[in-house]
Design brief:
The chain has two helices and eight strands, in the order ββααββββββ. By secondary structure, it is an alpha+beta fold. The protein is globular.
Length: 103
């Protein structure tokens, strides 16, 4: 947890790094990133938007975040020990919402 560079990303560190490469300075943690833009439904998301997932009360607003890749796929840094990956969004993961950035 807490990784912000290649070789060690957590979910929000990955987004901060990737968007930073494109001149977008996201906040550091997932719940702040989830509030950085406009909340929308999955049907309104475009590739490159954020997908916030909340499964616990630990981080009000989001406890996991990834990049919407389209066609129900996200790009994420899942947890320690697993590499950054692209995967299909599961139906039973808890709540989620899209975030279109204020850029």
């Amino acid at each position: 947890w807490g990784g912000t560079a290649p070789g060690g990303f957590d979910c929000s560190g990955l987004l901060k790094y990737v968007y930073g490469l494109h001149g977008i300075d996201l906040p550091r943690v997932s719940n702040q990133q989830a509030n950085y833009g406009k909340r929308v439904g999955l049907d309104a998301l475009q590739p490159g938007d954020l997908l916030a997932i909340y499964n616990s009360p630990r981080n009000i607003g989001a406890d996991h975040i990834g990049i919407w890749a389209g066609d129900n796929y996200i790009i994420e840094a899942p947890r320690p020990g697993l590499a950054v990956r692209k995967r299909k969004l599961g139906a039973n993961e808890g709540g989620w919402y899209g975030v279109q950035l204020n850029i």
